What we know:
The protein is an alpha/beta fold. It folds into 2 domains: 44-93 and 101-194, no CATH class; 199-389, Rossmann fold. The chain is built from 12 helices and 7 strands. Helix 1 (2-70) packs parallel to helix 5. The radius of gyration is 29 Å and the shape is globular.
Amino acid sequence: MIMYLAQFGSGAGQGGGDILGAIIPSAMFLLLFFYPRIAFSLQMMPALSRVADDLDALSRKGRKIVLREISAKPDRKTEESLDRFFEFFTIMPVDLDSFGIIRKIEHVIQQQKQRFDLFSSHLVPKADAEKKANITMGLAGGISLYGLSKMVRHFVEMTRKTKSFYFAMALQMQLPMIEKAAKALYRGTKALSRGWPIGDGIGPLVVARMMGNSKTKLVEEDTIMARKKLKGRNVYLIKAKGPGGRLGRPGKALESLSKKIQIDKIITVDAAGKLEGEKTGTLAEGIGVAMGGIGVEKSYIEDVAVQNRIPFDAVVVKMSHEQAISPMRKRIKDSIPKVIESIERMADETKKHDANIAIIGVGNTSGVGNSISEAEKAFKWIDTYEKRYKERMKNQKKKKRFRL
């Protein structure tokens, strides 16, 4: 009897194990099948909707900043005009045949600039040229932020309609970068609308510092030039006209200069994106034309250099893409003495002591004037902003600790 019970118990254990072994894989399969839908409904979709709502709110705040710079009490007509202009778009020319593409892009970009300038003049007809330039740049920043928020909203709604877990997961993985870019665009819209120096203005700020009190003249649309001596060499300093937000046409200005004199060297100074782990404000030297953007002005400079066999050097100040469109940080401003040292060393490398050297400060000249005194005003503003920024970050950390 005892032996019989033992055998029966052993058989029951094996049968239970077989059943459990069959149930577990089935349960795992069902879990893997239904989990994406459960996670999508309970966690991912609400989180994506919140981010889209936050970006919409940030876009509206950017619009209000531009609107306040236009008028303290804007009327309904002004608001409607601004809303219509925020839907502005630019269609790039066909590039199947690359011959002549630069001229096509130049034509489109110039038309775009004229439309922005015309709209700014319509919004603030009594404002001076610098104020209008700031409004134009603020509009560009606001439209970029608005377009980003619309794109995120589009993908969120597409995800909601398709109910695709994998689509939602792909969008969720991109959200940290999108949110970071949106916040930078918001800060950039605020800075440009108010005429504050931004990180991308390091090139014009260096050139303004080097100009000293030299006389400047307008040599191309929104572009000025000053001439001075540097270690016996003739230096031609080129930058966008400030302190309003402008990019100028440095390539066209250099082309015009090359038709009048023999240029022996070209030096460009610009901001450059840093890699994670690199310090903001560090320098790098190289050859080529240090210039971002769509490439029209860069093409003009390269054409001048190639046709006349002119060597071109470049100095860049490293910063993140977010720092480039945000108010300039002190670490970026503090790099200027080292940048000037690099430029002087490059100028000293030319064999001719009476050489003609073109130095181009590339970037947005928002908040950066056209002389050393104007540059020093920008330095003071940056130092004051840095103190306020650190105080604000310190207060935010205190609030977080208090919540914990």
